[in-house]
Design goal:
This protein has 429 residues and is of the alpha/beta class. It folds into two domains: 4-62 and 334-427, Aspartate Aminotransferase, domain 1, CATH 3.90.1150.10; 67-332, 3-Layer(aba) Sandwich (Aspartate Aminotransferase, domain 2), CATH 3.40.640.10. Helices cover 35% and strands 17% of the residues. The protein has helices at residues 4-14, 52-55, 64-74, 88-100, 114-131, 152-156, 195-204, 229-240, 293-299, 317-331, 335-350, 379-388, 410-427, and strands spanning 31-35, 38-41, 46-49, 105-111, 139-143, 176-178, 208-213, 217-218, 224-225, 244-248, 272-275, 287-292, 359-365, 368-373, 391-392, 399-402. The strands form four sheets. Strands 4-12-11-10-7-5-6 form a seven-stranded mixed beta sheet, with helices on both faces. A four-stranded mixed beta sheet has the order 1-2-3-15. The protein has a three-stranded antiparallel beta sheet with strand order 13-14-16. Helix 6 links the parallel strand 5 (139-143) and strand 6 (176-178). Helix 4 (88-100) runs parallel beside helix 10 (317-331) and helix 5 (114-131) crosses helix 9 (293-299). The protein is globular. It binds pyridoxal-5'-phosphate. The site of pyridoxal-5'-phosphate has 15 residues, from helix 5.
C-alpha cells in the first residue's frame, strides 16, 4: 500500500472531496482503519471520532454485528435489480422500518442516499396532488436555516440565503420559506410563534404540495434545536390547509436526539418520513422514504398509475443487510441510556466554552453537542489543532460540533470535549 505522503499526493491530484476546491487547499488526513470510536490514521496516530461520519456511525466503526451481516450477505446476494424481483433482506428491512416507525407509516421506498430520499418525498407529494386533480399544488414550504441535501430538488428547499446552495438559486424551483423556529427546545413557548407560518400556509395553500422540515434539530443549516410545539402546531396547520407534511429525519432518526425519532418529542406523525444517514449504522449508503398506504395509493391513482421513481441500486441487499443489523442493535435498547449519558457528558464537557471570548452559544441535545462561535472558524488552522489533540471534529462555518457514536465512553467523551474547548479558546488568541 502507498505511504501516507503518496496517498496524499495522489488524492490531491485526482479526487474531489465534499465541498472541496481544485487545487485542494484544505488539510487532509488519510485513514487506513477504524474501530469503535477510533480512527486509525496512515501515519500511525489514532483519533477519537466526534463526528460518527456525519451522524451515521451510531454504533461505532466496524461493529462486529454489522460486519457479520455484511459478510453473510456477500456470500448470498450482493445485488439484484428491484424491478420485478425482491429478496429477503429488503423484505425484512421493510418489516423492521414499519415496526419502528409510528402508524400509519407502512409503505417504504428504499433509495441510495438522503438527498434522493428527499427527492422521492417531494415527487410523492407532487404526484399525490396531481392524482387528486389538484396539480397546481406543486410548490414546497420549507424553513429558513434548513438543510435537505445537495440534489436540485433538495437544494430548492435548503435555506435560500445562508445555505450552501444560494449560488444555484436561479436554477432551482422557487419555493416558499417560513422563518426559522426562534423558540429554543428548552425555552418557554410564546403566543404568536406560528403567525408567520400560518399566514404563508393560508395564503399559498392552493399552490403548496407539502411543508418540509427537519424536526427538532436543524442540522447542517446551523445545528439549531427548536421547541417541539412548533411541530404540533404545524401538524394541525397542514391538516387545516390540506398540505402534506414531510419530516426529514435523515440526521435526527435512530436515537440521535434522545428519542428514536425526533417527531416523538412532539408526539406527532408526518405524512411522509425521510430516513438515511444512521440507517445502516454508517456502513453503507442507504435511505428510505415512508408514507401511509392511503397516501401511497393516492400517489399511484393518477395518470401514471405508479410512483415514478426507481434507482438502479434500489434495495441493494448488502445495504439492507447492514440496516437490518444496525436496527437490531438499536432494538437491544441500550441506546436510550447511552444517548442520555452522552448528553450529560457533553453538557459537562462543553460548558467551560460558554464564557470564552468569541463563543456565541453552547448547546446540547441528545448525542449532539455544539459550540457556536461569533465568527466562522478558520478550518485550515483549527482542523490540524484538533487532530494534534487526538480528536476528529470537523467544524463548519461558525460551528464546532460533535455527534459521537452512542457507545463512546465517559473518558473519551471528556477528552473530546476538552480538546474542543482548548482549540476554541486558542482560536481567539
Ligand atoms: C445529510 C442530510 C441530507 C442528505 O443526505 P445525503 O445522504 O448526504 O444525500 C438530507 N437531509 C438532512 C436533514 C441531512 O442531514
Amino acid at each position: 500500500m502507498y505511504d501516507p505522503n503518496t496517498l496524499l499526493a495522489l488524492d490531491r491530484a485526482h479526487l474531489w472531496h465534499p465541498y472541496s476546491s481544485v487545487p485542494a487547499t484544505a488539510p487532509m488526513f488519510p485513514v487506513v482503519g477504524a474501530s469503535g470510536v477510533r480512527l486509525q490514521l496512515a501515519d500511525g496516530r489514532q483519533l477519537i471520532d466526534g463526528m460518527a461520519s456525519w451522524w451515521s456511525a451510531i454504533h461505532g466503526y466496524n461493529h462486529p454485528a454489522i460486519g457479520t451481516a455484511l459478510k453473510r450477505q456477500i456470500d448470498t446476494l450482493t445485488h439484484v435489480m428491484f424491478g420485478g424481483l425482491t429478496h429477503p433482506a429488503a423484505v425484512r428491512l421493510g418489516e423492521l422500518l414499519v415496526e419502528l416507525t409510528p402508524p400509519p407509516l407502512d409503505q417504504v421506498f428504499l433509495a441510495d442516499s438522503g438527498s434522493v430520499a428527499v427527492e422521492v418525498a417531494m415527487k410523492m407529494a407532487i404526484q399525490y396532488w396531481q392524482a387528486a386533480g389538484r396539480g397546481h399544488k406543486r410548490r414546497f414550504l420549507a424553513l429558513r436555516g434548513g438543510y435537505h441535501g445537495d440534489t436540485m430538488g433538495a437544494m430548492s428547499v435548503c435555506d435560500p440565503v445562508t445555505g450552501m446552495h444560494h449560488l444555484f438559486s436561479d436554477s432551482l424551483a422557487p419555493q416558499l420559506f417560513a422563518p426559522r423556529p426562534a423558540i429554543r427546545y428548552d425555552q418557554p413557548w410564546q403566543a404568536g410563534a406560528m403567525d408567520e407560518w400560518e399566514a404563508l400556509l393560508a395564503t399559498h395553500a392552493d399552490e403548496l404540495a407539502a411543508v418540509i422540515v427537519e424536526p427538532i434539530v436543524q442540522g447542517a443549516g446551523g445545528m439549531w434545536f427548536y421547541h417541539p410545539r412548533y411541530l404540533q402546531e404545524l401538524r394541525q396547520l397542514c391538516d387545516r390547509y390540506q398540505v402534506l407534511w414531510i419530516a426529514d429525519e435523515i440526521a435526527t432518526g435512530f436515537g440521535r436526539t434522545g428519542t428514536l425519532f425526533a417527531c416523538e418529542h412532539a408526539a406527532v406523525v408526518p405524512d411522509i418520513l425521510c430516513l438515511g444517514k444512521a440507517l445502516t449504522g454508517g456502513s453503507m449508503s442507504l435511505a428510505a422514504t415512508l408514507c401511509s398506504q392511503a397516501l401511497a395509493e393516492q400517489v399511484c391513482a393518477g395518470e401514471a398509475g405508479a410512483f415514478m421513481h426507481g434507482p438502479t441500486f434500489m434495495g441493494n441487499p448488502l445495504a439492507c443487510a447492514a440496516a437490518i443489523a444496525s436496527i437490531e442493535l438499536l432494538l437491544e435498547q441500550r441506546w436510550p441510556q447511552q444517548v442520555a449519558a452522552i448528553e450529560q457528558g457533553l453538557r459537562r464537557g462543553l460548558e467551560p466554552a460558554r464564557h470564552l471570548p468569541g463563543v456565541a452559544d453552547v448547546r446540547c441535545l441528545g448525542a449532539i453537542g455544539v459550540i457556536e462561535m461569533d465568527q466562522p472558524v478558520d478550518l485550515a488552522r483549527i482542523q490540524p489543532a484538533l487532530v494534534e489533540r487526538g480528536v476528529w471534529v470537523r467544524p463548519f462555518g461558525r460551528l464546532v460540533y460533535v455527534m459521537p457514536a452512542y457507545l463512546m465512553g465517559e473518558e473519551d467523551l471528556a477528552t473530546l470535549c476538552a480538546a474542543m474547548v482548548e482549540v476554541v479558546a486558542e482560536a481567539n488568541h
